[in-house]
């Protein structure tokens, strides 16, 4: 770990480097919003946001450019293995031959491999961890930066919406939202930013994260089956 301490203008903040992440104490100018009632915080100028639907559209465009054929809305039903080597897949009832298969099924990866009977001794420890979020339409919140607190966060977007996230729930493959989580997320948002009171909740949804021990993903070749690769278990950091 490298530490580099220096003062910067105009914020006069103390900048520390933790490995590759920069952080500094917030000065009053950094904290100046009509919204937050906090006196002290750690400012991390390199923490940013990305709109995941746009990211996926960009990925899709890049794949098109490279001539990659996508099969959408299909289900991988079986992995064909013979003599310790991958032969292909059964996809929505059709056989597909392949020299190499990369499993990227997120929270479903371990279940998929188990159902396929692939090396039970070397099943990845990936389990679903439900996360619920909501979005508020709050053009006048005054919130200018992502704020993280109590393991949760508020993310202001340029269009005036504020994302509120997220819960961490070990509830199996159940992807339903709950009234309790809605209430808890809303209370968190108001506690951190009272200006959000009375703002309508536009949407509330749930997703399943691919949870893994310490959030460390499985990346690489399967130890028993040649031609089989894993890329799964990114937990809370699969996008960034
Ligand atoms: C509420 C919430 C907030 C999050 N916030 C962040 C964040 O701020 N930053 C961040 O980096 N990450 C965040 N994450 C985590 C991030 O979404 C995941 O780490 C990431 O999506 C994992 O990517 P993946 O492609 O491995 O899995 P997924 O995105 O889950 O994709 C797996 C896909 O495989 C498909 N699939 C499963 N089984 C089969 C099958 N048999 N046949 C065909 N398809 C199949 C599934 O339908 C799914 O579409 C968040 C997650 C949640 C739920």
Strand-helix topology:
Elements: E1 6-8, E2 13-18, E3 21-25, H1 28-31, E4 42-43, H2 52-65, E5 76-82, E6 85-91, E7 94-97, E8 101-103, H3 109-115, E9 127-137, E10 147-149, E11 152-156, E12 161-165, H4 179-192, E13 201-211, E14 218-221, E15 228-232
Parallel strand pairs: 8-15
Antiparallel strand pairs: 1-2, 2-3, 3-4, 5-6, 6-7, 9-12, 9-13, 10-11, 11-12, 14-15
The chain binds flavin-adenine dinucleotide (FAD).
Written account of the structure:
The protein has 240 residues and is α+β, with helices and mostly antiparallel strands. It has three domains: 6-43, no CATH class; 53-124 and 220-232, FAD/NAD(P)-binding domain; 127-211, D-Amino Acid Oxidase, Chain A, domain 2 (2-Layer Sandwich). Helix content is 16%, strand content 34%. It has four helices and 15 strands. It has helices spanning 28-31, 52-65, 109-115, 179-192; strands at 6-8, 13-18, 21-25, 42-43, 76-82, 85-91, 94-97, 101-103, 127-137, 147-149, 152-156, 161-165, 201-211, 218-221, 228-232. The strands form four sheets. The protein has a five-stranded antiparallel beta sheet, with helices on one face. It has a four-stranded antiparallel beta sheet with strand order 1-2-3-4, with no helix packed on it. Strands 5-6-7 form a three-stranded antiparallel beta sheet, covered by helices on one side. The radius of gyration is 22 Å and the shape is elongated. The protein starts with 5 loop residues before the first strand and ends in an 8-residue tail after the last strand. It binds flavin-adenine dinucleotide (FAD). Residues 75-76, 104-108, 112, 131, 133, 165-166, 207, 209-210, 232, 234-240 line the site of flavin-adenine dinucleotide. Flavin-adenine dinucleotide binds next to β9 and β13.
């Amino acid at each position: 770990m490298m530490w580099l301490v220096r003062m910067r203008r105009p914020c006069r903040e103390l900048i520390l480097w933790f490995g590759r992440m920069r952080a500094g104490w917030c000065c009053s100018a950094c904290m100046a919003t009509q919204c937050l009632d906090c006196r002290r915080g750690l400012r991390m100028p390199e923490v940013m946001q990305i709109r995941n639907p746009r990211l996926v559209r960009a990925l899709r465009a890049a794949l098109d450019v490279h001539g990659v054929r996508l099969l959408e809305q299909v289900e991988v039903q079986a992995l064909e293995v013979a003599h310790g080597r991958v032969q292909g897949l059964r996809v929505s009832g059709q056989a597909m031959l392949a020299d190499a298969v990369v499993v990227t099924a997120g929270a479903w990866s371990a279940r998929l491999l188990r159902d396929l009977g692939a090396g039970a001794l070397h099943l990845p420890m990936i389990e679903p961890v439900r996360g619920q979020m909501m979005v508020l339409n709050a053009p006048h919140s005054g919130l200018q930066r992502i704020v993280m607190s109590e393991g949760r966060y508020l993310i202001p977007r340029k269009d005036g919406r504020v994302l509120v996230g997220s819960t961490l729930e070990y509830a199996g493959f159940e992807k339903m939202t709950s009234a309790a989580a809605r209430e808890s997320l809303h209370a968190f948002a108001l506690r951190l930013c009272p200006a959000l009171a009375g703002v309508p909740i536009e949407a509330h949804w749930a997703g399943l994260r691919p949870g893994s021990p310490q959030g460390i993903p499985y990346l690489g070749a399967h130890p028993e089956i040649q031609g089989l690769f894993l890329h799964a278990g990114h937990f809370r950091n699969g996008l960034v």
